[in-house]
Design goal:
- About 35% of the residues lie in helices and about 25% in strands.
- The chain contains ten helices and 14 strands.
- It has three domains: about 1-35, no CATH class; about 50-130 and about 215-299, P-loop containing nucleotide triphosphate hydrolases (Rossmann fold, 3-Layer(aba) Sandwich), CATH 3.40.50.300; about 140-210, no CATH class.
- By secondary structure, it is an alpha/beta fold.
- The protein has helices spanning about 25-30, 90-100, 120-125, 135-140, 145-150, 165-180, 195-210, 225-240, 255-260, 285-299; strands at about 1-5, 10-15, 55-60, 70-75, 80-85, 110, 115, 130, 160, 165, 215-220, 245-250, 265-270, 270-275.
């Protein structure tokens, strides 16, 4: 009997069943380098601030009934840290706890050296912490509303004149991000649901960039977008890091992780399993860390 492994809808490796008898051979089958076209790891970002620690987080208790049990991460200004792992290791739950969208029983978060104890996402917004959620349609955008309203929703005070929202200010803000992020739309009055997936994702990014955050969490930045939009989003994220923004990117796409990350933190079974420098990372190394916790738990 033979077993075939699929990777990005292509046959990554196939062979007789006895050859897939250990975690190491399974890792090889999914990450077989001769079939994996990896984007180049970006050069060091100009303007980075490697000594300025913007955010640190650790949890020693449980989050979401044990989905996250012992995780820690540090993100510095001017770098992209990617949180990687297999499906369901608690990455999103960990980030939502940092953002204040999910309660945590223990652990701490620090922003710019000061303790950060959010009671909810509204505290994160006040502190300059944004989070681009995983599902833009169900939790990130008002799909049936115009582009300008979606972008302005995080900064309503800025676009208001007294007690009323200024349509002029809101349109000006949207036009700024349409230019900056190259959003393909005839105008800021366009209904977001009528845009392509890639342009919807840019609107979601613009919504949080309007907040002018110091830390931005981006969960699955290119899910449901085409190849061209993916390249544009990578350019945007690298440019933001070069300007000094601290970026924590959650991604289940290993080539994406390798293309973006200055550092990679791998989660497995609700814990941080290890860290790899971006320039030294390979898909095999990430997958070995991602499966190491499972092996320890089975032992």
């Amino acid at each position: 009997m033979e077993i075939a492994t699929l990777r990005y809808e292509h046959d990554a490796w196939s062979g007789p069943f006895p050859r897939l008898d250990s975690p190491e051979t399974v890792v090889f089958a999914f990450a077989a380098p001769e079939y994996a076209e990896r984007p180049e790891v970006p050069a060091e970002l100009a303007g980075a601030f490697p000594t300025s620690v913007v955010m640190g987080c650790s949890t020693s208790g449980e989050i979401d009934h044990g989905r996250v049990r012992d995780a820690s991460i540090t993100v510095r200004a001017g770098e992209i840290v990617c949180l990687a792992g297999l499906v369901g290791p608690g990455r999103t739950e960990f980030c939502e706890a940092i953002f204040g969208a999910r309660p945590r029983e223990a652990g701490n978060v620090a922003l710019n050296g000061a303790p950060f104890l959010p009671k909810g996402p509204w505290d994160a917004l006040k502190a300059g912490l944004g989070m681009v959620c995983e599902d833009r349609k169900s939790g990130g955008l008002f799909i049936d509303t115009d582009l300008a309203s979606n972008i302005a929703v995080t900064v309503l005070k800025r676009v208001s004149a007294g007690a009323l929202i200024s349509q002029t200010r809101m349109a000006a803000l949207a036009d700024h991000y349409i230019r900056e992020l190259k959003i393909a739309t005839p105008s800021s009055a366009r209904i977001v649901g009528n845009l392509s997936g890639g342009n919807q994702q840019k609107v979601l990014l613009a919504k949080w960039l309007a907040l002018e955050p110091t830390v931005l969490i981006v969960d699955e930045p290119t899910r449901g977008v085409d190849v061209g939009a993916r390249s544009e989003i990578y350019r945007i994220l690298r440019g933001l890091a070069a300007e000094g923004l601290a970026l924590l990117v959650v991604s289940s796409d290993l080539p994406e992780v390798l293309a973006l990350a200055d550092r990679i933190v791998v989660m497995a079974d609700g814990r941080t399993a290890g860290e790899i420098a971006g320039q030294d990372a390979t898909e095999e190394a990430v997958l070995r860390l991602a499966t190491s916790q499972d092996r320890q738990n089975a032992a």
